């Protein structure tokens, strides 16, 4: 059973526009969510996170929104840049636990 | 080095062969994690060490998988009698504190192909 789902395997966006990556989860015990970015042949790198007590967290061009009632979170990138082209993983963590649960990832392509 | 280092980067094993994958975490990092990433999927948790203690091995798929971190630094993931379904990228991550989250740093991974 997939507890974290990223239903869009890929997304193509024009440079300068907004990229919106979506993630759904099923486990209401998750209380911390993270987004990781992965380039080919590299390991995932942390991008941005949000605690379940918040509904928004912003860091430069990246904003993560959390809708607890819908068990849904999204990552907004604006403006999108070609260097943002990568695979983005949504991950969830429950309190006091050390096991990150990842989604399957969304491949973002930002084209000029 | 400055980051998490994994070796080898690529490994081809014949079915039934034993393999050993190495992870050098960032110096001083307390926590170390192993993940398995199958093609087209997200990483899946295998096991977690706090220093030399293996606190969670619930993700190891079978008793053919064994991990150790005897001195609380370098870790080895061993897979015995490899099978085709073991083909995946094996990722190691470390963090300075007792846990994961934003402080985790991932290595580049070892791509294992079982033929």
What does the radius of gyration of chain B come to?
13 Å
The total of beta strands of chain A comes to 11
Count of alpha and pi helical runs of chain B: 0
Global structural class of chain A: mainly beta
Q: Please estimate the helix content of chain A.
A: under 10%
| Rg for CA atoms of chain A | 13 Å
Shape of chain A: globular
Number of strands of chain B: 11
Q: Strand fraction band of chain B?
A: over 45%
Report the span from N to C terminus of chain B.
Answer: 32 Å
> Describe the biggest sheet of chain A?
6 strands, mixed
Q: SSE order of chain A in H/E notation? A: EEEEEEEEEEE
Residue share in helix of chain B: under 10%
Walk me through this protein's architecture.
The complex is a heterodimer of chains A (112) and B (115). With 112 residues, chain A is mainly beta. The relative contact order of chain A is 0.35. The mean pLDDT of chain A is 94. Chain A has strands spanning 4-5, 10-14, 19-25, 30-38, 45-51, 56-59, 62-67, 72-77, 86-94, 101-102, 106-111. Chain A contains no helices and 11 strands. Chain B is 0% helix and 48% strand. Chain B has strands spanning 5-7, 10-13, 19-24, 31-37, 44-50, 53-56, 65-68, 75-79, 88-95, 105-106, 110-114. In chain B, strands 2, 4, 5, 6, 9, 10 and 11 form a 7-stranded mixed beta sheet that branches. The termini of chain B are far apart. Classes of the chains: A mainly beta (112), B mainly beta (115). Chain A binds chain B through residues 4, 6, 9, 32, 34, 36, 41-46, 49, 89, 91, 93, 98-105, and chain B through 4, 31, 33, 35, 40-45, 48, 55-56, 58-59, 91, 93, 98-102, 104-109.
């Amino acid at each position: 059973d997939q507890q974290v789902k990223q239903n869009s395997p890929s997304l193509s966006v024009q440079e300068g526009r907004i990229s919106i990556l979506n993630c759904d989860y099923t486990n209401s015990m998750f209380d911390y969510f993270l987004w990781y970015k992965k380039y080919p042949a590299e390991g995932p790198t942390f991008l941005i996170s949000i605690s379940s007590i918040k509904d928004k967290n912003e860091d430069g061009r990246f904003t993560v929104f959390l809708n607890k009632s819908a068990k849904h979170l999204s990552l907004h990138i604006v403006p999108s840049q070609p260097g943002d082209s990568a695979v983005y993983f949504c991950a969830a963590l429950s309190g006091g636990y050390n096991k990150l649960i990842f989604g399957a990832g969304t491949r973002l392509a930002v084209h000029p | 080095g400055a980051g998490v280092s994994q070796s080898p980067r690529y490994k081809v094993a014949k079915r039934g062969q034993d393999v050993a994958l190495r992870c050098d975490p960032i110096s001083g990092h307390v926590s170390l994690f192993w993940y398995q990433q199958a093609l087209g999927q997200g990483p899946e948790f295998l096991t977690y060490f706090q220093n030399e203690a293996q606190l969670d091995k619930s993700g190891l798929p079978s008793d053919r998988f064994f991990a150790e971190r005897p001195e609380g630094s370098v870790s080895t993931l061993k897979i015995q009698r490899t099978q085709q379904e073991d083909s995946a990228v094996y990722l190691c991550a470390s963090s300075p504190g007792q846990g994961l989250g934003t402080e985790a740093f991932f290595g580049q991974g070892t791509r294992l192909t079982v033929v």
